[in-house]
Amino acid sequence: MPLVERELISRIRRLASKRLARNKAGAIVAGIGDDCAVLRIPTGHEALITTDFSLEGVHFRREWQSPQFIGHRCLTRGLSDIAAMGGEPVAVFLSLALPARTPQKWVDGFFDGLLRLAKKFPVPLAGGDTTQSPDKVLADIVVLGAVPRGTAILRSGARPGDGIYVTGALGGAAAETDSFYSQLRRQRSSRDRIGGTLPQPRLTIGRILRERKIATSMIDISDGLSTDLSHICEESEVGAEVWEEAIPRAKFRGREVDLHFALHGGDAYELLFTAKKSTRVPTSIDGVSLTAIGEVTRTKNMIIIDPAQTRRVLRPQGWEHFRQRSSSK
Q1: Which pLDDT score, from 0 to 100, does residue 186 have?
Q2: Fewer Cβ in 10 A, N or C end of the chain?
Q3: Residues 6+ positions from 23 with CB-CB distance below 8 Å
Q4: Among candidates 65, 56, 62, which has minimal Cα distance to 97?
Q5: Phi first, then psi: what are they for 275, rounded to 5°?
Q6: What are the structural domains, with CATH classification, of the chain?
Q7: E strand or H helix at 109, and its extent?
Q8: What is the pLDDT of residues 92-123, one digit of tens each?
Q9: pLDDT per position as a tens digit, 267-290
Q10: Are 126 and 95 in contact (CB under 8 A)?
Q11: CB 116 within 8 Å of CB 73
Q12: What does the longest C-alpha to C-alpha distance in the chain come to?
């Protein structure tokens, strides 16, 4: 079982201090150890605040994924939201509920994955909460970010004629999860684990898109391209045409993934953004490709065009909570 609460908090504090000793100077005035963290936001900036649940049985399964992967992915979810606004992370907060029989080794692995990613950017773990849960692990990540006043990239900025772009390649995580489920259906057990490739929040790309004033709207692809594009269309009151052949598909086991995974698969954590026709969009930033996949339209619906120029309605089919389905996100 995990350490008692006081000892667990002390352990987390030591781990966070050790891993993040060379963090951004001056961001934290007071962190873990007080009732509240005291943080300093850079002058002339606005705060970005995002929160994301990671729930056992919904977002992850301990028997299928390593604790390091689960911790890494938990923080990725929050950092990716900051990236989608063109911001930079300032501090992270984690509320963690653990069943009484959770091995301390699992808890240490979870924090190892989370803090390794935090160190990469770097962003400090400034506080949170720990509690006991009846039977499942629940992790709620809160990330505080900052962006120069008036420059946050919103979902509502797309205009007819804008190009539609994505970073990286899509569908890899969805294809891996589908393959895992297929093995379970055939064998009823599997020695493999989900999480061969760690998702990476595109913070550098988001910041550069903001600094160069390239993106008119942006969102991260956590729920699937079709679903997240529909969010931009709704908030901007526009439609979209997507070119099927242009969608960059990830490779899984040496082959491009099926179009369905690239269109509707979640957990990509790539960025989907729009840009004016007159804007020169680079083909890559920070070693990651940027691909034009369509155009914003006046009609408020989404259309996908195949190589034969056949047009059909593109419906959001990515992840949506409370909709019945057989597998977890």
Answers
A1: 64
A2: N
A3: 122, 123, 124
A4: 56
A5: -150, 145
A6: 5-148 (3.30.1330.10), 155-313 (3.90.650.10)
A7: helix 104-120
A8: 999 999 999 999 999 999 999 999 999 999 89
A9: 899 999 999 999 999 999 999 999
A10: no
A11: no
A12: 64
